[in-house]
Each structure stands twice: as structure tokens, then as C-alpha cells.
């Protein structure tokens, strides 16, 4: 068993970006500037957004955090997005999800200018990704591709089982892994809550991407020896021995599965940090393309 160390790979990506930004700065060119919108004060969202702002600081990007109370009305949010769309200093805009129920998240995402859509959630970005054209790729699946690349994992011809069909992870992941470049060129099976023979399918997987949000769902009996395991789960479970009162659990029962696998991502320290690194790459790309 070997660890796919997302913290390490993310650091390497951020270090490279930092050099690129420093060079742009020396040449008098514009520095990347990310705007993050956070609605309400959900604990997990606070953590993730704080991590994004910190990554900007580490890498020499500018960042602006726009905060709203959870009772904000949709129109005000749409107006803020319009302001950011029209602000030439802002290169990338992200609206942290989930949004409160009274706000139509799709409407909000669709309001972001596609050339600032560093989350890659806009239909224009999704369409390009499906066609295999250059675009912003959603940060989590993009981060996973970067992690596989960092460790020079050969995915060609492998059977990848993606568990979960969300628009932000499972679906884009299945498209990227089946794509015609490296990493990619996989045969992909996408599984979800209505899949009847999940265990049998998982046992065929050379690669398993677990992105369903159920802690320790993937157990050793579901995994083929030597498989590559990508754990996207980050559920907070109560832990009174921790200062925070919780700890993170992945969608994979790590200890038992790790014994059977070739490569596996830990939680924390796997896909999470790569998600942030991928967002930074998208923001840098937006800055280059828009200036
Ligand atoms: N518009 C939008 N874009 C997103 O990219 C987005 C989002 N909304 N909503 C929620 C999910 C989740 N997400 C994570 C980011 C970093 C970690 C991360 O850094 N995790 C650390 C641990 C952090 C902790 O201690 O909780 C780790 O796994 O090692 C995890 C999850 C981005 N998301």
C-alpha cells in the first residue's frame, strides 16, 4: 500500500504557482484575484472558504471574501455577482455551496460569467468539458486528475468505478476518466443509489472513486486486491476527544481497505487539499486568459 499524498502534491502545485505569480509580478502583469462568496455561517463551509483564502495568501494571489447572512435575498446575491463579473480586477468568482434553500443555486451559478467560472459549474464550462475542450474543470475532479498525474499513475485501459453522480464530483469525474488523455482513457462505470449490484461492480474496479458521502461505505470485501482507491468523502463525525469536537471520515474504511490496495488517498490530506490546489490553478488560468 502506498499513500497518494494530497497535501504533498497540493504543496508542489502551489509552490509552482507561487513562482509563476512572482514572475508575473516582476513583469508588471496582473496578479490573480479570487472572489469567494460565502452565505451564512455553516461550520464546514467556513473551514473550506478559509482554506481557499489561505491558499491565495500562500501563493501570492489576491482574494476577496464577500460574506452575506443566510437570510440574504436572491436578487442581492445576483447583484453582487454582477458587480464581480464587471470588476476587471476580479479573475475568478466562486459561490460556496450549499446555499440556503430559499435561494436557487442554479440561477446563482448561471449568473457567473463563464470566463470567471473557476469552479467550472456553469453550463458553458460543463459543456466544454464534455466536449473535451479546454475550460475550467470543477476543482475536486480536477484535483484528483492532478493527483494521479503527480504520482504518474497509469490509468490507461483501467476499469474505473465512480460511486456518486453529483454535478460537482461523480459526473465530471466519470467524464474526465473516460477522456482521451492521460490520466484518463479508462473504462468508466458510474454507480449511484439505484445501482443494484454495487459490490460486484466495485470488485471489478482497477480504480474506485468513492464520492457518495456515506462514511466508511467502501469496505475491504468490495475491493479488488491492488486497486487504486480515491476517497472523496469528508463527513464530520462527533469525536469528544478532539478539541474541535469532530473528526473527518472518508467514504472508505481506510484501515481495512488500505491493506488490499496499491494506492489510496487518506482523509484528511488526500482529495481535500487537491481541491484547493485545483481551484488555484483555475484562478491562475482565468487571470492569464482575461488579461
Ligand atoms: N462552490 C464550491 N466549490 C467547492 O469547491 C466546494 C463547495 N462549493 N462546497 C463544498 C465542497 C467541499 N470542498 C472542500 C475543499 C477543501 C477541503 C479540504 O481542504 N479538506 C481538508 C481538511 C479540512 C478540514 O479540516 O475540514 C482535507 O481533506 O485534508 C475539503 C472540501 C470544496 N467544495
Automatic annotation (TrEMBL):
CDD domains hit by this protein: NAD_bind_m-THF_DH_Cyclohyd (cd01080)
Transmembrane regions: none
Pfam families in the cross-refs: THF_DHG_CYH, THF_DHG_CYH_C
UniProt pathway annotation: One-carbon metabolism; tetrahydrofolate interconversion
Residue intervals of the Tetrahydrofolate dehydrogenase/cyclohydrolase NAD(P)-binding domain: 138-288
Task of the protein: Catalyzes the oxidation of 5,10-methylenetetrahydrofolate to 5,10-methenyltetrahydrofolate and then the hydrolysis of 5,10-methenyltetrahydrofolate to 10-formyltetrahydrofolate.
InterPro entries linked: Aminoacid_DH-like_N_sf, NAD(P)-bd_dom_sf, THF_DH/CycHdrlase, THF_DH/CycHdrlase_cat_dom, THF_DH/CycHdrlase_CS, THF_DH/CycHdrlase_NAD-bd_dom
Residue runs in coiled coils: none
EC number: 1.5.1.5, 3.5.4.9
Complexes and interactors: Homodimer.
Catalytic reactions on record: (6R)-5,10-methenyltetrahydrofolate + H2O = (6R)-10-formyltetrahydrofolate + H(+); (6R)-5,10-methylene-5,6,7,8-tetrahydrofolate + NADP(+) = (6R)-5,10-methenyltetrahydrofolate + NADPH
Organism: Terrimonas rubra
Gene name for this UniProt entry: folD
Protein name as catalogued: Bifunctional protein FolD
Keywords (A to Z) from UniProt: Amino-acid biosynthesis, Histidine biosynthesis, Hydrolase, Methionine biosynthesis, Multifunctional enzyme, NADP, One-carbon metabolism, Oxidoreductase, Purine biosynthesis
Family stated for the protein in its record: Belongs to the tetrahydrofolate dehydrogenase/cyclohydrolase family.
Domain Tetrahydrofolate dehydrogenase/cyclohydrolase catalytic: 4-119
Binding-site positions, NADP(+): 164-166, 234
HAMAP family, A to Z: THF_DHG_CYH
